[in-house]
Amino acid sequence: MEKREVEISEVIDSAKFVGLPLGITVLTIFIMLVDGFDLQTMSFVAPALLPEWGIERSDLTLVLTGSMIGMAVGSVLLGWLGDRIGRKNSYLVCIAFLFVGSLMSALSTGLNDLFAWRVLTGIGLGGVTPLAATMISEWTPKRVRVVAVACSIVAVPLGGSIGAEVARWVIPNFGWRTIFYIGAALPLVFLLIALFLLPESPKYLTQRPSRHAQLARMLNRLVGEKRFDGTERFIVAEPPRPPGNWFAMLLKPPYLSTTLLLWAAFAFNTLALYAFTNFLPTVLTATGMPLEQALRGSTFFNFGGLFGAVGGSVLIALLGSRLVGSSISLMGAIAVFITGVTIVALGASADAQLYFLILLAGVAMHGMQNFLYAVGAHSYPTYIRASGVGTAQTVSRIGGVMSSVLAGAFFAMEPAAPVSLFFYMVGGVLVVVVISFFSLRTHIPPNRSRPALKEAGAGDPAH
């Protein structure tokens, strides 16, 4: 007897969002909040390490580079692992790395120890975001998928913003190690929750006939009725890949200019983003600003990311990505330059003005990070879309590592460089982002022009 064929994407797209997809989305958002917290714990504690360990600001480069190196490894390694042991198991491994890395960071007695454990934490950080986006994308109906993924991504800067406020109170009262203990406790809690409540990827289960009974149970739970018994032939309808090497395709016409411009925009925006993420409290304390006020700067920077990611996405849908993304990034470059000018003119006493400018910088840098994923997905056909965006993300890690290297060189300058130079340098980097992003020819068009473009053969935006 021939098995009944079931295309699982059709089942998932026909299901209600309330229920299993909503539960997966909410759980993932909470995990991403923890991810945002752990991503920035080192920047929160860095100023407190200086007097306690008797080190210079330039010495912090080692440990602040650690998480970037780990993220570069994790984004590749854990994605590869997910294809072999399952998305859920790989996701659990990521969370376990966050727990162990943060716990051991709290117990560190020197920079070398702390560097090693930040690398381990970074491996987890590198895998959490792409795996979270994959889990949500595969279990949520298409009509709400974009919003669900966006909410999980936006949770990262929100977690950093919450972390900065927690650090402002915790570090003066309980010491910097407590921040790492919190950063270890939270992943442990969600590791246990995800172990029991998070389902496996439906596409992963589809590729393994021996686990089709498990997939049938999950799909029955999804649709709210006993529709499948595991004897079906579950499939995923995907277009076939054309012959040829995918990497070579990215570097040949008609994708060559798109690929190189995306790589440049990703790398330089990530450089600017992590220069602020990792070094902002340390730079602000160098102006004479108290630690609590410096950490408030991180709060505003991350809070700005919420406006940039959500507000910018709405504007892109209305006005297209070229105008909106380029304008917001240019605004950020100007805000960062003015931050340097304000420090020269008024010093740390101008904290209200500085917080506002830092908020605008957060809108620009976090917003652009989201815009680049959306435009990258729009720029490639289905068969190389994941490879194109994934490669751009990997290249962006180079920018993350360079942010620590260049910041370390800045702090090591003799005589000491004025703090304003840090902001001028980051502003210059953002100008490169504006030029690279504006020069792309594969932007998402405004809503009003999409039907015409579609008729002309342009690719639809993909998520």
General description of the model:
The protein is an all-alpha fold. The chain has 2 domains: 7-201, MFS general substrate transporter like domains (Growth Hormone, Chain: A); 239-463, MFS general substrate transporter like domains (Growth Hormone, Chain: A, Up-down Bundle), CATH 1.20.1250. The chain contains 17 helices and 2 strands. The protein has helices at 8-14, 20-53, 61-85, 87-106, 111-139, 142-174, 177-197, 202-206, 212-223, 246-250, 256-286, 291-319, 321-346, 351-379, 382-411, 419-439, 450-455, and strands spanning 5-7, 233-235. α11 (256-286) packs antiparallel against α12 and α13 (321-346) packs antiparallel against α14 (351-379). Residues 449-463 have low confidence and may be disordered.
